[in-house]
Fold this protein.
Amino acid sequence: YLYEDYDLKGSRTLKRRDGLFWGLFGAYRNRGGYEIDPGYEGVAVSDDGLTWRRASEDPILSVSDGDCDKTWEGDSIYQPWLFETKDGRYLNFYNAKTMIPDWTEQIGLAKSEDLIHWRRHDSNPIICVRSSGDGHDARFAADAKVYRLDEEL
């Protein structure tokens, strides 16, 4: 969601932009279970913060996009985290998954000026799995939650 304040100790009060509340969402085309691929992301708006509707019928990020890097985000894109910078730009920290050779999740970044049109960061993934060894972080670097600790962003 778009918040009034992204300070680490701030309240999580929804912020209006152009008279509407804004949020990003993850969705799946297929039904019948938990996170059935392929996943994609969309943008929604609300007049009251309770009832939401799509701001665009088109996904903002999808595995079908021409710039989707199949090596790390080819099977699913989901778990958006919306962040507004001090200068009014928007960042989306998102999970992406590939199933080859095994289920692996990493964090990507997309940027927007208007919350509708997004472009992927050139150096994605921005948070990668550990390159050697085993354990959870060798396959999962996921679910980013980003807050502001100082005035930098």
In short: The mean pLDDT is 90. Residues 70-73 form the longest helix (4 residues). The longest strand covers residues 20-28. The chain is about 5% helix and 35% strand.
